[in-house]
Amino acid sequence: MLQFENSVEHEEWQEFITEGIEPTKIKRNILDSWKRCKAINVNPYEGHKGSSMDQKELMQKIKEKGILIDVIKPYMENLYKIVEGSGVIVFLTDEEANILHVIGDEDILKDYRTGCNFKLGANWSEKNVGTSSIGMVLKEGKPIQVVGREHYCLKHQKWTCSAVPIRDVEKNIVASISMAGRSEKGHIHTLGMLVATEMAIENQLKIIETTEKLIFATKNHKAVIESVSEGILSIDKHGIVTFMNESAGKILFSDYKNAVGKHINDVLDYKAVILNVLETGEGYIDKEFIINSKRGRIHFVKSAIPIRDENGEINGIVDIFREIKQVKKLVNQMVGAHARFTFDDILGKSDELIEAKRLAMSASKSSSNVLIMGESGTGKELFAQALHNASSRVQGPFVAVNCGAIPRELIESEFFGYVEGAFTGAQRGGRPGKFEMAAGGTLFLDEIGEMTMDMQVRLLRVLQEKEVTRVGGNKTFPVDVRIIAATNKKLNKEIEEGTFRNDLFWRLNVLTINIPPLCQRTGDIPLLTGYFLETLSKEHNKKYILNPETMKILNNYSWPGNVRELENILERAVNFTEKNEIFPIDLPKNILKNGQDFKSPNKVLSLEQAEYQAIIEAMEHCQGNITLAAKILGVARNTLYSKVKKYSIEC
Predict the structure, then answer these.
(1) Taking residues 453-466, what's their average pLDDT?
(2) Burial, 539: exposed, middle or buried (Cβ in 10 Å; 0-12, 13-18, 19+)?
(3) Would you call 541 helix, strand, or coil by DSSP?
């Protein structure tokens, strides 16, 4: 038992309170606390005079600390069982010294409440109750025992209290546990019991924190795995499934929820190819497989990664796979295999164009093949894209192929794909062709009239059988594509000359759309010109307009290059002019020659136009000889050079 010379201690306390004389028999940390209490005017003769929480605040605080309280309560109860009946109470405070839970002998609790205002929600920090184990332990962060006369407040001096801090896994103080009893019953072993309890509680908090992190990590891992579109499964070295996500179940036609714990061959209705990795020990990355399951054909790209122990032995395999249609969809998105234009993007009010749009809109409701006829530059691909976007295949890919731009030796592999090793330079693992890439969507065969005769035979067979075989392979791939073909040639004439197959023509020519040339689209040139100038104005951040005389020239021109030529002419003019208004001199001379009659007696030219025309005629007369043209015009040779450069005249 701890014994004190109460008279001496009391005398020293009295001298400190009344005269400020420092005691000699008080521990240094206790004296420091007394000094702090005196400095902030803590009443040395009273007990608790500080703040207390109301019931609502107390309930909210207990709710916030719910998990912590639930962990600590059992340890407090075990402590109390050891000292029950010996006049001791055990209590819990938070990191701010608010009392949250109390266990103890009822007579002691009653005495403590009466003498010290000790109750739930009371704040026992140093500024409210003076020197106590609770306030000091939170301030110093280490176990503390305050005995009798060491308390600053007189009403507390008949008590002995011990306290320890409780820290979380990050070493932050989150609470304290204290034991208090009458001074004569104080014992140093009390502090030892609290320290042991502190260590047990903090270990428990570490376990809980680690468990929560593991649970969170597991849930997070599971959420990530389940959110991906790839199928993921793993097996152990005996072929037993240890994991399978929902995507894997869908791709493999398997019940993923009941797969774990079963042999992989019992989960599937075919021999699992992943078992070959267990036999050979060799994994692979992005390898293509086609499997005929009893429940359907499975076509996927997959990777098998062996899991090895420290001795290099295979303990299991992780299998990651994706359906080929998803791979193709992703590739098409990356390479831009989609249609951007709709029928709203096809501008024109002429009867000829409106009729072509009407036919195309009707064709979009069908799944039949379409043949688009029209001169170069009339917008055949624009119509093809709009037709695709208005069809039921709008969610599928739009794959465009220029039949005249593919080298003859590559055209077959480009259309139908090839297997690994099919020819020198073939990509490892093989490669799907355009027909496979367009599965579920539209294959646009531009310039179909340029296709070679042997390729026409292959194309006809695919259209009839609706399946392809890759170059060098023997497996067939079903193809669900809609064909839209386009040409600027007269295919009837090509058939007569023997350069285009008659049977292929009729296979393609189910629905025919003839796009009129620009020269036949009366009144559409101003509309198209306005649209192109508006687009160019946005690109150059400068408002461009067309001089009325320039508009007349454009209307009179024959436009052999059609809409594409009109767009190019306007883009050229915008890049060459330094003004906002485009004049005739900003147009190429072939447009001026064919679109404007400069010799008309009723036409008055501006000085610049007259100068421009005079230089053109002089240069043509002199066949581009600058010296002779300068003599005819009566100007210096250097002056003529400057004018030629100004008007962008070709010599």
Answers:
(1) 88
(2) exposed
(3) coil
What is the CATH number for 605? Answer: 1.10.10.60
pLDDT score, position 533: 92
Q: Look up the pTM and report it.
A: 0.52
Strand (E) or helix (H) holding 554: helix 548-556
Alpha carbon distance 644, 523 (integer Å): 34
Cα distances (angstroms) measured from residue 632 to each of 541, 609, 614, 615, 651? 42, 18, 10, 10, 16
CA nearest to 76, candidates 173, 209, 179, 146: 179
Q: Are 347 and 306 in contact (CB under 8 A)?
A: no
Are 12 and 77 contained in the same domain? yes
**b/e per residue 629-649 (b: at least 16 CB within 10 A):** bbeebebeeeebeebbeebeb
Question: What span, in angstroms and rounded, lies between the C-alpha atoms of 71 and 102?
Answer: 15
The separation between the first and the last C-alpha atoms of the chain, rounded to the nearest angstrom, is 119
Is 646 within 8 Å of 586 (Cβ atoms)?
Answer: no
List the single range of 207-216, 346-355, 456-465 with lowest mean pLDDT.
Answer: 207-216
Q: 162-188 burial, b for 16+ CB within 10 Å, e for fewer?
A: bbbbbbbeeeeebbbbbbbbebebbbe
Looking at the fold, whether 397 and 308 belong to one and the same domain comes out as: no
SS3 418: strand
Which single residue is written with the structure tokens 């992703």?
330
Query: Is 130 in the same domain as 23?
Result: yes
Closest CA to 132 of 169, 93, 102: 93
Looking at the structure of the chain, the number of domains it has is: 4
Q: How far apart are CA 362 and CA 364, in angstroms?
A: 5
Residue 51 has pLDDT above 60, yes or no: yes
Cα separation of 360 and 381, whole Å? 12
User: Quick one: average pLDDT of 272-295?
Assistant: 82
Structural contact between residues 133 and 146, judged by C-beta atoms closer than 8 angstroms:
yes
Torsion of the alpha carbons at 410, 413, 418 and 420, rounded to the nearest 10 = 10
What is the reported pLDDT for 175? 92
State the residue range of the domain holding 401.
Answer: 335-516
* Contact present, 378 and 467 (Cβ < 8 Å): no
CA distances from 44 to 27, 261, 370 (A): 18, 71, 101
Indicate whether 291 and 398 sit together in one domain. no
Q: Does 45 share its domain with 83?
A: yes
